[in-house]
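Structure ticket #2291
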Amino acid sequence: MYKLGHYVNHKLQEYRYADIFDVEEEDSYKRIVIGCAENHVSTILELIALLNGSFYILYVLHTPRARIESGRYQSEKLSYNEASTILNQFHKFFENDARHDIWIYSPETSTTIVYDRHNLIYIYGYTTEQVQFIEKKGLKRKHVEIPVPHVHSYNKECDTFESKLIDQYTWSRTPLLDEDR
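Resolution: structure written out below.
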């Protein structure tokens, strides 16, 4: 079971990034993009641990497979421990299924960390400590590219987690935005 696949010699297999990162700058944003080989949720937890204060999680369900309606599911304000509980409890679901994106926002630092369907982690409003952490973690600075062609996996084994995540926590749902699709 995996989230992102690609073809090698006409055979579909899991795609893993090579523990790399890059800083991307456009007119409208400046962000870090991280391509981890594994342990995406652990990396996210380490990154948000560097931020003080509370967090909000936005669970963007763009490709539902269970009884849950697509949409943007916003959590209430969470402590680090509460956010960590959600991310740890559902880490296998988040890391092995492409039906969703996860956004973690720190209002105190205006930092947003996004874990997307392509198994990439983006940091908007990043801090110096986060850059130092990435470098200490041994990630190499290199342009990060999504493989072309690629396949998003929506695994039947994960369908129960979709419902459990929404049912177990308090969310405020809004419709998907065009850019979520």
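Closing remark: The chain has one domain: 4-180.
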